Each structure stands twice: as structure tokens, then as C-alpha cells.
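note to self: dont lose this again. the chain is below, predicted strucutre after it. 129 aa total, dont forget to put it in the shared folder this time
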Amino acid sequence: MNDVLDVVGAVCLLLGSLLSLVAAIGVLRLPDLLTRMHAATKPQVLGLVLVVLGLSLVLRSPSAAALGVVVVLAQMVTAPVAAHMVGRASYRAGQVRDDLLVVDELTGEIDPDLGRRPGAGWPEVDPPR
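---
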């Protein structure tokens, strides 16, 4: 049984490392910010899950598994939020290539001059000059 767990753990470690490598290559090779963010979050988080699963199967230690679960949960909470915030900030700053967007759902939501939604509880002030 230990040999089977070692083999499954090694396969998980290999697949997780491969997904993390694909994420790194995607960040370097993809054309714009939004696709790079997608490459930085999706396969990287799944790669981390597989690496932690592989480590848990190989080490067979409850403390290592518990620490791995904490790391995975922290990554699953912070990666999508960080990607969303970076994407929203770059859209507001005008750094998103419009020719690569299939659908632009933020067109009517964000005032391009002020970088915020009009009338959404923000104080009405003149933009800086």
C-alpha cells in the first residue's frame, strides 16, 4: 500500500509542477494583461493543490497535511481576489487591449474620466486637473 501511495504522490507532484510551469510560461508568452492574469491564477492554484496533495501522500504526516490545507485555502482565497483587483485597476487605467476583448461588460459601469461608477455612493467631486 505504501508503494501505491508513493507512486500516486509522485504523479501528483509531477502534474502539479507541470501546471505551475505552464502558468509561468503563460505569464511570459501571452499577449495582454487579462490573459496573463488567467494564466497566473488558474493553473497555478491547481498546480499548488496537486503539489500539496502529492506531498501529503508521500509524507503521510497529519501536521504536513494540515499545513498544506491552510496554504491551499489561503491561495484559493487570495489569488482570485488579487487577479480581480489587478484586472479592474488595469481596465480603469486603460491598459486593457480592446481588440482582444470578446465582451466588455464594464463599458457602461466605469466612468473613464474618473475611474469609478457614476452615482454609486461616491462623492461628486471635480476630477483632478
